[in-house]
Design a protein that fits this description.
The protein has 309 residues and is α/β, with parallel strands linked by helices. The protein has helices at residues 3-8, 11-23, 25-31, 60-66, 107-124, 148-161, 173-183, 203-213, 228-232, 256-280, 294-304, and strands at residues 43-48, 70-74, 81-87, 128-134, 138-145, 189-194, 219-226, 240-244, 251-255, 284-289. Helix content is 41%, strand content 20%.
C-alpha cells in the first residue's frame, strides 16, 4: 500500500493540526520545548535589561512595580529525538491480507501506519526521527535525523514492511532490543511496535531488554499489537482446525472450543505480566487491538504523550 496516501486520509492529522493551530505554541511546548519560537514558553528567571538588547521580552509589569527594566529569561529550546522500533517477524503479518488500507490492516499494517503517522507528525514539529526493524535479523537501522531526505528514506523503508511475508521469520526481540538500546546514545522517545510473541522463550530476558531501553533516561512507549479476538480470546468456530506457527512451522490439530478457556487464562497472565513489567520500569503500555480505530488509538496516545517529555 502507499503509506503516504493512506496517512493523508487519517482524520487524526487534520484534527491535531487544527488543535495545534488553535492552541498555537502552547500545545506544542506542552509536549516538549517548542521549536517554533526564539524563546520557549517555560519561564526560568529575570535578568537586568542591558541597553541595546531587544525590548521584546521586557517584563513591563515588573517595571511598573520597580521602575527598573528586567528581561524574562527562558529555558533553552531543544527538539525531540524519537526512535521507532518495529517487529517484522512472521507473526506480525497475521492475519494474511492481500491488500491493506487505513480501515483494514493486519498487525504489521497497523504498525506501519501508526509509525508513519507519528513520523509525519514529528516531522511537522521539526523533530529528529530514527527507525529500527528486526525479526530474526537486524533488518534496518537509521539514526535520528530531521531532514526531508531522511524522512522519505524512512517512509520507503516502512512501505516495504507492509508487503506480505512468508513463514519462517522468527522473533528475536530481546536480542535486538539490547542492540538497539546500545545505538541510541542521546535521550530519546522510543516507540516499540510488537505483538510480544517470540521464538526466544525466556520471558525474564525479554523484560530485561525492555528495561535496557530505559537507560540514558529514554522514554519508552510499547504498542502491544494484537488481533485481540483471535490471539487473546481465541474466538474460532468449533470446527476442527489446523493451527500453524508461522515462525517455527509447527502445526497442531484441535477444536478451538476445547482449549479456549485454558488458552485465554494463559494469555491473560502473560499480558498482565507485560503490563506490570512496563509499570515497574515506567514504560508506557498501549494496547493496540487492530480491530479498533487507528485514529482513536493514536489520538489518545498523542494527548497523553505530554506526560513523557
Amino acid at each position: 500500500m502507499n503509506i503516504q496516501s493512506e496517512i493523508n486520509k487519517l482524520n487524526l492529522f487534520s484534527n491535531l493540526e487544527l488543535l495545534a493551530n488553535q492552541v498555537v505554541e502552547g500545545f506544542i511546548s506542552g509536549m516538549h520545548k517548542s521549536p517554533f519560537h526564539g524563546f520557549s514558553s517555560e519561564f526560568a528567571e529575570h535578568k537586568i535589561y542591558n541597553r541595546g538588547e531587544s525590548t521584546r521580552h521586557i517584563d513591563w509589569k515588573r517595571f511598573a512595580k520597580t521602575e527598573k527594566l528586567y528581561v524574562k529569561k527562558y529555558e533553552e529550546e531543544t527538539n525531540l529525538r524519537c526512535h521507532l522500533i518495529i517487529d517484522n517477524s512472521s507473526s506480525m503479518h497475521y492475519p494474511a491480507m492481500k491488500r491493506q488500507s487505513v480501515t483494514e490492516y493486519n498487525k504489521i499494517g497497523f504498525s506501519v501506519l501508526a509509525a508513519g503517522a507519528l513520523m509525519t507528525l514529528l516531522k511537522r514539529q521539526r523533530d529528529a526521527v530514527g527507525l529500527s526493524v528486526y525479526s530474526d535479523d537486524y533488518e534496518f537501522y537509521a539514526s535520528e535525523k530531521g531532514s526531508d531526505r531522511h524522512f522519505h528514506q524512512l517512509m520507503t523503508a516502512l512501505e516495504g514492511l507492509s508487503e506480505p511475508a512468508g513463514y519462517g521469520k522468527p522473533t528475536h526481540t530481546y536480542t535486538f532490543l539490547h542492540q538497539i538500546a546500545e545505538k541510541i546514545h542521546r535521550r530519546s522517545m522510543i516507540f516499540v511496535f510488537t505483538d510480544m510473541f517470540q521464538t526466544e522463550t525466556d520471558k525474564s530476558r525479554l523484560f530485561s531488554a525492555l528495561q535496557h531501553l530505559k537507560y540514558n533516561k529514554h522514554e519508552v512507549i510499547l504498542f502491544h499489537v494484537m488481533d485481540k479476538a483471535s490471539e487473546y480470546h481465541f474466538d474460532f468456530d468449533n470446527t476442527p482446525r489446523r493451527f500453524t506457527d508461522v515462525e517455527t512451522g509447527e502445526v497442531i490439530d484441535l477444536f478451538a472450543e476445547n482449549v479456549k478457556s485454558a488458552y485465554e487464562k494463559k494469555v491473560a497472565t502473560y499480558v498482565n505480566d507485560i503490563r506490570l513489567t512496563c509499570a515497574k520500569y515506567r514504560i508506557k503500555y498501549v494496547e493496540a487491538d487492530i480491530s479498533k480505530d487507528l485514529n482513536k488509538i493514536l489520538y489518545t496516545y498523542i494527548i497523553e504523550r505530554q506526560k513523557f517529555v
